[in-house]
Give the backbone structure.
Amino acid sequence: MKKSYIFATIKSVVMCCCFICCSESLINQAAFHPQPGSIIDLTELPSPIEQHFLKTSDSVEISTFYLPRINADKTILFFHGNAGNASQRLPIAKELWEMNSNVLVVDYRGYGLSAGEPSEAGLFIDARAALSFLIKEQKIPIKNIYVLGRSLGSAVAIDLAQDQNFAGIILVSPLSSGKEVAEKAGLGVSAVMIGNPFNSMEKLKHLHSPMLILHGDQDQVLPIEMGLALKDASQVPTRFVTIHGAGHNNIIQIDPGSFYKHINTFCSDIMHGGTELTGKN
């Protein structure tokens, strides 16, 4: 074998490795903004909040907050967005708990009190550990679980929901794909380099559970067109709710009563069976 061929092969391998490492680095820098620790005192957790540490399949210890409810008629598995940590979402979890729900909020690896460093594959593994906790340790049937994802968490929820029979899927300000986010952000060459992470559009064909999408029509981070694209491509019964006047970060604050009512109504309609979910309002 000629030396020039060997050197060319080595160069190609090195360039490929550099491209992969660079792509992963770009994704991680853009996608993940974790805040360590907790904003609440873990030694005096208010009722009904419990903290549970879970061991993932790749041996990373992640932190979760569980809000159990006696005689709950449903369970909501909640995946938050790309910044902060789970403790900051406990007020939202408490509102969901008030809907006669058990609620589990997950701190992804590298977030809050969880070990490790965040990555796309890692978040998906974390989600499976959380689901396993509900099914195996809390003895909750998957048919009674609603998976809820907000912003980046929508991609985690969709990935987890593939080929599963959840009661329902709830997406708040979802993204269609990482590539689409990069292109809309005007990242140019970088958009090509990252490939297509968090490709929720591709995974829609593997969903079997009815879906609710809530999106603000003033969202400048993940425009409402992304939510509509998911709705239009969905192959399961899907309800789309436009939150008028809402941006990305204030979609709940604009009208909290209406926001939580839409979620509660969706769950109620499913539990009572057969209500038409398609359409947009």
Notes: The longest strand covers residues 61-67. The first helix runs from residue 3 to 31. Confidence is low (pLDDT under 50) at residues 4-22. The domain at 48-272 is CATH 3.40.50.1820 (Rossmann fold).
